[in-house]
Specification:
The structure is a single chain. The protein contains 22 helices and two strands. The chain is globular and about 75 Å long. By secondary structure, the chain is mostly helical. A two-stranded antiparallel sheet has the order 1-2. Strand 1 and strand 2 form a beta hairpin.
Length: about 450
């Protein structure tokens, strides 16, 4: 009956919350150490709290220079400013901010899908996000990229509220994503243009507000050092390490397509994942087993629908979807490809899990809708026991997978990845340790006369 269904839903949501709270366990165990990017960002944040200036002496900047031409961004710097003011300056405090932001992302993803489709579809999407190695890995490292999926999902959710001013807050969220990490500066504008199911007037207002809000980023982009890293890593770069530096426009297009589909490689998704040990345990891919199964099944159904369409036959699968599910699948498809695009347009380390971090919420949406369709198919076929059995299997296999993953993540991965999470001898990289462990002030750790 309805009462027992509601009770079961509540129990399921409580269980999903507990699964996400695992993100806050053992920050000092795995990943080991405190990577140079984490340490440099932490130094900037501690300097801001002490002096109102970052390590380089810039007063409350929108961007603070880091190692290798990277920049730490305002959403991350000031988000951590508030977070570490509450929880302290330990490694655990800095890393727990990424876990908190990721949990918020999963929450708003659930609310978005629930509003768009149904509570049960939201449960499947949330389950996949909760046990995904891709999501878990980057919720444990103190850096900017996890903020991108959060702001993108928050923006989508705010657009769904359809309040008088919700489009303004959505624009702010999308702009914050663009500030937070360079790949979002590719993904977000294209997503706003292509997002289906939106009133064109609202879309126009959001895009205009977005452009106004990112003017400081656009202005900063005229500084050669700000875009130096992007220019080196781009497919069009003339950098000596770029294998495509002499490629024609046609060859560059083929390379971008090829590298896009490298992110759907079996080994990447369920085998060993990203080859970089900071991005993956190497024992699991970026998806859980069940999510990958749902992904392949969904692709198979889509291929069958296209085949029938080509032969002018009825497309049964598509017609069985609700209108909301159809829109969600389009959003998931666009969002996935646009999330992967920034990684596919670079030549180094492809497939690249961080540069494509904006894709994971959309892959979770796609797979969640597929699972819900399978359950509905069983129910409409008067095979309710099969529907329950199927749901039980999805849960059981997901939990077995997650347990196996955690066992590796907090065990052998913590040992194997030690060398990948160390800092370096540069004064700015050592500043965090000196401030926290030796009680030195920011001014005492600064290298005199050095500015990026």
């Amino acid at each position: 009956n309805m009462v027992s269904q509601l009770r079961n839903f509540k129990i399921v949501w409580v269980f999903l919350i507990l699964l996400n709270l695992v993100r806050f366990y053992g920050f000092s165990v795995s990943p080991p150490g405190f990577y140079v990017d984490e340490a440099v960002a932490a130094a900037h944040i501690l300097c801001l709290k002490q002096t109102g200036h970052d390590y380089w002496g810039l007063s409350y900047p929108l961007f603070s220079a880091g190692p290798g031409g990277a920049y730490f961004t305002a959403p991350y710097l000031y988000g951590q400013y508030v977070w570490t003011s509450l929880w302290g300056s330990s490694t655990e405090a800095f890393r727990s901010f990424s876990a908190f932001i990721t949990c918020l992302c999963v929450l708003f993803l659930a609310l978005y899908v629930k509003k768009k489709a149904s509570a049960r579809t939201a449960i499947w999407v949330t389950l996949f996000a909760s046990v995904s190695p891709w999501v878990f890995q980057f919720s444990r490292i103190a850096w900017d990229p996890p903020m991108v999926p959060f702001f993108v999902v928050l923006g989508l959710y705010l657009l769904e509220l359809k309040n008088k001013y919700s489009w303004i807050f959505a624009s702010i969220a999308f702009a914050a994503g663009a500030y937070a990490y360079p790949p979002a500066r590719v993904q977000v504008p294209l997503l706003l243009i292509l997002i289906p199911g939106m009133n064109w007037k609202t879309t126009g207002k959001v895009i205009l507000a977005f452009i106004v809000l990112v003017i400081p980023v656009l202005a900063k982009s005229f500084e050669p050092e700000f875009t130096a890293r992007t220019r080196i890593l781009a497919l069009t770069s003339d950098y000596s390490g770029n294998p495509y530096k002499d490629a024609s426009l046609f060859e560059l297009g083929l390379a971008a397509i090829k590298q896009t589909f490298m992110h759907f490689d079996f080994n990447y998704l369920v085998g060993t994942g990203d080859h970089n040990l900071r991005h993956s345990t190497q024992r699991f891919g970026m998806m859980s087993w069940v999510q990958f199964g749902a992904f392949i099944w969904g692709l198979g159904c889509a291929a069958w629908a296209l085949f029938n369409l080509a032969l002018k036959r009825p497309i049964g699968f598509w017609k069985k979807l609700t209108t909301s599910e159809q829109v969600l699948l389009w959003i998931a498809t666009f969002g996935t490809f646009l999330g992967i695009a920034p990684a596919a347009l670079t030549w180094e380390g492809v497939p690249h899990a961080i540069r494509s971090i904006g894709a994971w919420p959309f892959l979770c949406i796609f797979c969640g809708v597929v699972i819900e369709r399978c359950v509905v198919w069983f129910e409409k076929s008067n095979a309710v026991p099969f529907a329950r059995g199927f749901q039980g299997m999805v849960w059981a296999l997901s939990l077995i997978f997650f347990t196996s993953y955690l066992n590796v993540f907090f065990g052998e991965y913590a040992e194997n990845s030690y060398a990948w999470f160390q800092t370096d001898p540069e004064p700015i990289a050592q500043a965090y340790g000196k401030m926290v462990e030796k009680g030195m002030s920011c001014a005492e750790t600064r290298q005199v006369g050095v500015r990026p």
